[in-house]
């Protein structure tokens, strides 16, 4: 199968540090190549891939201080894909609604994975205008605000089996991994860690839009067992997550998937997560962690979570969240769309 994977240009594929969408695109692309497919990745020039790289911009936009208009490089990306579309059996976009207009009017089958939240008011008329465009959700919960969309399937994310693995050593702190912003609940994580008497290590980035929240609400809480270590990449995650007794995920938003949950599972680390969005689809309460609804419940759940079998958590990851399973799910969707287009 000749497959085009089209990634946003904000981050490299895979990202050097933080980045969920581009990380998933990297895992999917390389796994499709391992399965024998002919794959071309449209991405920034600093991407690293087993596929053929079609570099549309020299480097990731987030790391290029000269970029003032990020839309312009993405316009070039859409045009490059359009000119080469007839060379592929399927086009797989990871760019939200960007491809809907033009690619609905050309013959090559395409599909778009929606990686973000779908509960935004302004999305409703967009999806009303494109009722036939096939999209993929990354959890069933993600679909709820847009029931009218044309879902080709739900594909839960996956990781390469050997990317993150349990490391030997003590598990003597709690962990927070991701992004510091109000909806991710870093302040709640700090209060939970202090209540259960455990140190907390925060491996996270701060976007410009969240600097005020960080400086006002989080900086005063640092110290006294709470350590901010900044962004980390995949090379550091096995050690970071394997050293944690549990990962805290006290979110306050409709999480579309939550890659950090399966990253923790890959390291045998249980997760204490608030019941929002995809959490009940990804986690199994009492097996891979605890699903709670408040800080008080998280504190109460901690002793049982700390006693969970780390080997069993890793086995659950291997059963449900590998990159091979993810790629096989997508290939099934590709084939159905290709067959439908030919018919």
**N- and C-termini, Cα separation:** 17 Å
Helix content: 25-40%
Number of domains: 2
Taken from the alpha-carbon principal axes, the silhouette is globular
The radius of gyration is 20 Å
Task: Outline the low-pLDDT stretches.
Answer: none
Give the CATH class of the largest domain: Alpha Beta
- Strand percent estimate: 15-25%
- Name the CATH homologous superfamily of the largest domain: Glycogen Phosphorylase B
* Topology pattern, helix = H, strand = E: EHEEHEHEHEEEHEHEHEHEHEHHH
Which CATH architecture of the largest domain would you pick?
3-Layer(aba) Sandwich
Mean pLDDT: 96
Q: Helical segment tally?
A: 12
Q: What structural class do the secondary elements suggest?
A: alpha/beta
Major beta sheet, specifics?
7 strands, parallel
Strand order of the largest sheet: 3-2-1-4-5-6-7
What is the number of strand segments? 13
Description:
Residues 18-119 form the Glycosyltransferase subfamily 4-like N-terminal domain. Pfam families: Glyco_transf_4, Glycos_transf_1. This is Glycosyltransferase. Residues 171-302 form the Glycosyl transferase family domain. This protein folds into two domains: 2-158 and 322-342, 3-Layer(aba) Sandwich (Rossmann fold); 173-320, Rossmann fold (3-Layer(aba) Sandwich), CATH 3.40.50. Helix content is 36%, strand content 19%. The chain has helices spanning 21-34, 71-84, 100-103, 123-129, 186-196, 211-218, 234-242, 259-266, 279-282, 295-306, 310-320, 323-342; strands spanning 2-6, 38-44, 52-57, 90-93, 110-113, 134-137, 150-154, 173-179, 200-205, 226-228, 244-249, 271-274, 289-292. It has a seven-stranded parallel sheet with strand order 3-2-1-4-5-6-7. α8 (259-266) links the parallel β11 and β12 (271-274). The chain is globular and about 60 Å long. It starts with a strand and ends with a helix.
């Amino acid at each position: 199968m000749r497959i085009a994977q089209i990634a946003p240009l904000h981050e490299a594929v895979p990202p050097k540090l933080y980045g969920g969408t581009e990380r998933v695109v990297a895992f999917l692309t390389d796994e499709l190549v391992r399965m024998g497919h002919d794959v071309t990745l449209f991405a920034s020039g600093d991407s690293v891939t087993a596929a053929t790289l079609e570099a549309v911009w020299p480097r990731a936009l987030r790391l290029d201080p000269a970029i003032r208009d990020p839309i312009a490089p993405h316009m070039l990306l859409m045009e490059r894909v359009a000119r080469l579309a007839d060379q592929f059996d399927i086009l797989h976009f990871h760019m939200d609604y960007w491809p809907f207009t033009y690619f609905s009017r050309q013959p090559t089958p395409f599909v778009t994975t929606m990686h973000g939240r779908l509960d935004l008011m302004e999305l409703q008329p967009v999806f009303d205008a494109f009722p036939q465009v096939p999209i993929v959700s990354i959890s069933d919960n993600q679909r709820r605000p847009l029931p009218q969309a044309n879902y080709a399937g739900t594909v839960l994310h996956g990781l390469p089996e050997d990317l993150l693995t349990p490391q030997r050593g003590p598990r003597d702190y709690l962990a927070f991994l991701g992004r510091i912003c109000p909806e991710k609940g870093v302040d709640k994580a700090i209060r939970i860690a202090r209540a259960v008497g455990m140190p907390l290590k925060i491996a996270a980035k701060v976007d410009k839009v969240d600097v005020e929240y960080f400086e006002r609400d989080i900086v005063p809480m640092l110290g006294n067992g709470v350590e901010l270590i900044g962004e980390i990449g995949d090379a550091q995650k096995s050690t970071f997550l394997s050293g944690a007794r549990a990962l805290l995920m006290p979110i306050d938003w409709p999480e579309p998937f939550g890659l950090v949950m399966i990253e923790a599972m890959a390291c045998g680390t249980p997760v204490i997560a608030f019941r929002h969005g995809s959490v009940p689809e990804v986690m199994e309460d009492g097996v891979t962690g605890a699903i709670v609804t408040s800080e008080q419940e998280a504190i109460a759940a901690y002793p049982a979570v700390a006693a969970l079998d780390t080997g069993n958590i890793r086995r659950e990851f291997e059963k449900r969240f590998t990159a091979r399973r993810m790629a096989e799910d997508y290939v099934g969707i590709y084939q159905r769309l290709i067959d439908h287009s030919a018919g």
